[in-house]
Design goal:
The protein is α+β, with helices and mostly antiparallel strands and 162 residues long. It has helices spanning 12-20, 23-33, 39-46, 50-62, 84-87, 90-103, 157-160, and strands spanning 66-72, 77-82, 111-115, 140-144. The strands form two sheets. Strands 1-2 form a two-stranded antiparallel sheet. Strand 1 and strand 2 form a beta hairpin. The structure holds zinc ion (ZN).
């Protein structure tokens, strides 16, 4: 494990980082929000060593952020689903994505979030830019790749209207 821990910190940010701040852990949570559930899918998506992935998944289950659910009996197969506690990380994930789109994505956003209902862009406050609805994780789908845009259009139209 990491050498640094935040156990003796009383700040809730420090305590949250202790649970989800490790790099692979937050990427596992991101993938879970994008619909990834099975070990091999996480492994393929992240390119992480299997033993590392196993450890991170177990820790997320221990901490009640993911649950391990059997989806097949013979042979037994399990998948990992976000719990309600895990789903409560939705605003955190959208904020990280939005911040990264603005400050760490010079080519433009690699992933776009869309409202399933109307196809509108989701802004950093989880509001659909088209219909104004406040969106939860089940209302949104992710699309890969930077949207085609004209030369004068801003890189992040969903965020530029603040
Ligand atoms: Zn909408």
């Amino acid at each position: 494990m990491l050498g640094n821990t935040y156990d003796n910190q009383t700040c809730s940010i420090a305590r949250t980082l202790e649970l989800i701040g490790e790099r692979w852990t937050i990427l596992i949570i991101r993938d879970a929000f994008l619909g990834v559930r099975r070990f091999d899918e996480f492994q393929r998506s992240l390119g992480v060593a299997r033993n590392v992935l196993q450890g991170r998944l177990e820790r997320l289950v221990e901490n009640g952020i993911l649950e391990r659910v059997r989806y097949q009996e013979r042979p037994e197969r399990f998948e990992y689903r976000l719990t309600e506690k895990g789903l409560d990380l939705w605003p955190v994930v959208v904020s990280l994505l939005s911040w990264g789109d603005r400050h760490a994505a010079p080519e433009g956003p690699p992933v776009l979030l869309e409202h399933r209902g109307c196809g509108g862009r989701v802004n950093d406050r989880r509001i659909c830019e088209t219909c104004g609805a406040l969106l939860g994780p089940r209302d949104v789908k992710a699309r890969l790749g930077v949207a085609p845009r004209g030369p004068h259009e801003p890189v992040q139209p969903a965020l530029a209207s603040r």
